[in-house]
Amino acid sequence: MAKRKRRMKSGDFILVLITLGLVIFGIIMVFSASYYTSINKSGNPYSYLIKDTVWAMLGLGAMLVTATVDYRFYSKIAKPVMIISVILLVLLFTPLGEERNYATRWLGVGGITIMPGELAKPAAIIFTSWFLSRDPKIIKSLTKGVVPLFVLCGVYGGLIILQPNLSTAITVCIIIIGIMFAAGLNYIYLGGLVGVGALGICTLIIT
Asked: Which residues pair with 112 in a beta bridge?
């Protein structure tokens, strides 16, 4: 048992190191690519570097906080989080939605703006994980496990594509399908999901 715990801790530590490495690498790449743009816009070559570093530190703090939360807590908020995220996506197509650069991806209330598409990512993770954790065998059922989550992919993907924001829609769908695959999704179902998704994307590009 102790050996198993050590392996789990080692695995978590490695995952954290990989994540931190990717974040640092991303900050450096953005700094390198935006150096002259930053000078032209603000006169300070480090403005993007400072901003990205601040956000990275805030993200690190959020990660440490969420890591201390009992995982059972997320099962209690899974449904409300999913419902709220879908409602926020729908609200984009009301007067609350703000259009920028021919895309309506932001909700603005009292000078505060949020991107529901970004909130859909953690919502998809929490809900899909909870849905599949209730019964390990549910992913083997086409009607009880695969179809409901495929419908969720369609709801999220459809609402986000309408903004339009194809990259975020693909990301959210990949998150859901990835969790399904990790839970033991049958390769045949996986192939069908990927095929339907690819067909839908091609149809959108053509039209």
From this structure: 109
